[in-house]
Every structure is written in C-alpha cells, then in structure tokens.
Amino acid sequence: MDADDHMRYIQMDDLSTGSDSDYTKYWIDWFLNTKGNEYFCEVDEEYILDRFNLTGLNTEVREYQQALDLITDSLEDDLDDEMREQVEKSARHLYGLIHARFIITSRGLAKMLEKYKKADFGRCPRVLCQNQPLFPVGLSDVSYTKTVKLYCPRCEDIYNPKSSRHAAIDGAYFGSSFPHMLFQVYPNLVPAKGTDRYVPRIFGFKIHEIAKQHRWQDAMRGEMEKMWRDRNASDRQLGNGEGSDQQKGGFFWVA
C-alpha cells in the first residue's frame, strides 16, 4: 500500500470507528510518519481548532477549508482524483504554515526541545563543534522562497540537511525566529561557544602571519590591476584614450 492509499484508508476506513477525540490524530499521524517529515512535531488539536491561530492563512492556501477539514479528519466531500490531489497538497502546505506558528508557542517549543535533545535534526558537521545537535531554521518567513537549513548554536552557522528529502522542505514551515526564540525561553541550554580553531600547519609548523599578509597583498594587487585595465578599456571605447595617464591626471598602480 503506497502513502496515498494509506492516507485514503485512514480517512475512509478508520474514521468510521473510534471516538471523536481520536479522529483529529489520523491525518497528522500519517503526515508525521511519512518519510522526510521527521523535522515536524505534532501540532496540538486544540491549537488547530482555534481559528484565531490560523488568522490570515486562508489567503495563502488554495482550497483552504477543505485542506483544514482534511487535517482535522472532517472532510466529507466526495472529490475526484484531481481535486483530492490538490486538497492533499494544500493540506500539507497548510500544516507546515500552522507548524511554523505553533513551534514558537510554549507548548511547541517544549515539543521541539525534546526532538533537539534526541538530535532528531542531526548534528553539526563541523568537527570542532563535537557533535552539537542542530535546529531547523528558515532563512525566510515567506513560503516558496528558501528551503530549510540547520542551525548550530555552538558555531552559530547554518548547514544544508544531509537528506535530499529534508533539503526540499520549505523553510517557512519553521520560520526564521524559532531556534533563537527557544534559547530566549531556555537560556540555560545555550551551549558554550567553542574557542578551538583549526590552525593550518606545514610539517607541524604554523604558517607565518606574513604569508597571510602576502596572499592578501597579491589579491589586492590583482583586483587593482583588473580595475585599471577595465577603466582604460572603457576610456578607449569612449574615445578618451589619447595621451598618457600622467597627462590626464591619472594614477599608476605600482606593484
């Protein structure tokens, strides 16, 4: 049974049995158990059913009401395959947007903290961060602009997820504020900033600082030479190339 068939089975078969309190868990359970959705936590039923928490989302999601009904397992419309596919896509998008709002509430922060403690989001690939657990973070709060990244609170840098499934998740489903909000609420969890830095060596000896300075000077010299070549070429194109630079009050770059 593939994922789509499994979801239809949940909606059409399991909803015919059980209590009302169980119904709202089925679609969300399917979504959370789908491979690639491991970064998401379960949004509380009460949060989803409070329409105040969903303010404005109806303008961002197609087939909003049907998508919401699908998430809460109350969809009763008999949809054709094409329409059902659209509603299912909208439901996944809507859940992601609700998720971004939920995880900056006290309840949502607590749920994501548990996942962080278990390193569900992965660990920092930087060797000197000593396997520091990561947080998902968005680079934008606007949908369909940036995919999710992983933030390391020790080196304070971001990384791409290893899994291609995770790398395709919309960053707006986590928002740009989440990890920083969490550390505001739980300041005792802020890891100590690492003081260790990798030191380049040749045969065990540190590379002398003068070598770095020479590389910088070479780079600057190359940039200046290119700038003057471009300027001279531009002057010739404008018919102002006659005479020497000294006659025109120009400057020479001396290596």
From TrEMBL:
<protein>
    <recommendedName>
        <fullName>Casein kinase II subunit beta</fullName>
    </recommendedName>
</protein>
<dbReference type="GO" id="GO:0006359">
    <property type="term" value="P:regulation of transcription by RNA polymerase III"/>
</dbReference>
<comment type="similarity">
    <text>Belongs to the casein kinase 2 subunit beta family.</text>
</comment>
<dbReference type="InterPro" id="IPR035991">
    <property type="entry name" value="Casein_kinase_II_beta-like"/>
</dbReference>
<dbReference type="GO" id="GO:0005737">
    <property type="term" value="C:cytoplasm"/>
</dbReference>
<keyword id="KW-0418">Kinase</keyword>
<dbReference type="GO" id="GO:0034456">
    <property type="term" value="C:UTP-C complex"/>
</dbReference>
<comment type="function">
    <text>Regulatory subunit of casein kinase II/CK2. As part of the kinase complex regulates the basal catalytic activity of the alpha subunit a constitutively active serine/threonine-protein kinase that phosphorylates a large number of substrates containing acidic residues C-terminal to the phosphorylated serine or threonine.</text>
</comment>
<dbReference type="InterPro" id="IPR000704">
    <property type="entry name" value="Casein_kinase_II_reg-sub"/>
</dbReference>
<comment type="subunit">
    <text>Tetramer of two alpha and two beta subunits.</text>
</comment>
<keyword id="KW-0808">Transferase</keyword>
<dbReference type="GO" id="GO:0019887">
    <property type="term" value="F:protein kinase regulator activity"/>
</dbReference>
<dbReference type="GO" id="GO:0016301">
    <property type="term" value="F:kinase activity"/>
</dbReference>
<dbReference type="InterPro" id="IPR016149">
    <property type="entry name" value="Casein_kin_II_reg-sub_N"/>
</dbReference>
<dbReference type="Pfam" id="PF01214">
    <property type="entry name" value="CK_II_beta"/>
</dbReference>
<dbReference type="GO" id="GO:0005956">
    <property type="term" value="C:protein kinase CK2 complex"/>
</dbReference>
